[in-house]
Automatic annotation (TrEMBL):
Membrane topology: Multi-pass membrane protein
UniProt keyword terms in alphabetical order: Cell membrane, Membrane, Transmembrane, Transmembrane helix
Transmembrane segments: 55-75, 82-101, 121-140
Domain of life: Bacteria
Transmembrane helix in keyword set: yes
Protein name per Swiss-Prot or TrEMBL: DoxX family protein
Family named by the database record: Belongs to the DoxX family.
Subcellular location: Cell membrane
Pfam families noted in UniProt: DoxX (PF07681)
Amino acid sequence: MTTGFSSARLDIGSLTARLVLAFVLFPHGAQKMLGWFGGYGFDGTMGFFTSTVHLPYIVGLAVILIEFFAPLLLVLGLATRFCALAIISLMLGIVVTSHLANGFFMNWFGNQPGEGYEYHLLFIGLAVALLVLGPGRYSVDAWLARRRAQLALA
């Protein structure tokens, strides 16, 4: 068990991983769910997923729900490990179905047929860190755990 300075650093590390992951992923979810940031909203995105990408409806729905709701929950530190696992699954699916064939690098100069998977690997790394480390002290998950412990002692 860690105490003192080491524990505080882990808590700050978990908070940082949660917030970075949330703030980078949320705009993508908001594009798909709400049409914000130049996105097509739920109906347009589902049409693209099912007609162009040929994803099953349930898979397209899962993509939108994970990209929109997981970042919101991560900001709060609520259901952190569940959200991390969902994001890992999502990113692995995206890499395998859409980006693996394009190699590692993003298409910065437009000289590849599509985007590589380096961006998704960063998401996976942050999510794995959260899966292993947990949400940290500065989270609703930690507050709920403390509350359950207090009630168990009462």
